[in-house]
Amino acid sequence: MLTTSSIVRIVLLASACAVSIASAQVTGKAHARAALSDVSWMEGTWVSSTGARIVDERWTPPGGGTMLAVSRTLSGERLVEFEYLRIVERDGSLVFIAQPNGRPPTEFPLTRIDGRHVTFENPEHDFPKVVEYAAKSDGSLEASISGAGGERRMSWTFTRQPGR
How many Å apart are CA 50 and CA 34, to the nearest integer? Predict the structure, then answer.
């Protein structure tokens, strides 16, 4: 026979399970398992240029559970955008954190890692919802952002800058 306290425990456990299931349905994807060593190939100074527009990202080596980066976009000699970026280890996975133009941080949990290609997603964010980085066979780095289902995809191909 169930006592009142047993029923309360069952109800609390069922509620906790329902919250976990609802949370998983909101994000739509499970977090992939990974460590910073799995993305250490992003370390370095990377430059992408299209005409007078230059974008550079400078990623630190992994340390203290994080990789830090700063990105800036120049048009000629004028700064038009900047962004603070982080990849942090959390709960056996990675989280990409972006702060464009100094705004409050937005987190994108890792949803996929396949060798030298990583995907971070935040379906609750307006845009972008997906951030991806991929190391290419020619030594370049491709970064892209997109909305749900790949809509409004934008990408940059970066070349590693030696000794910077």
Answer: 33
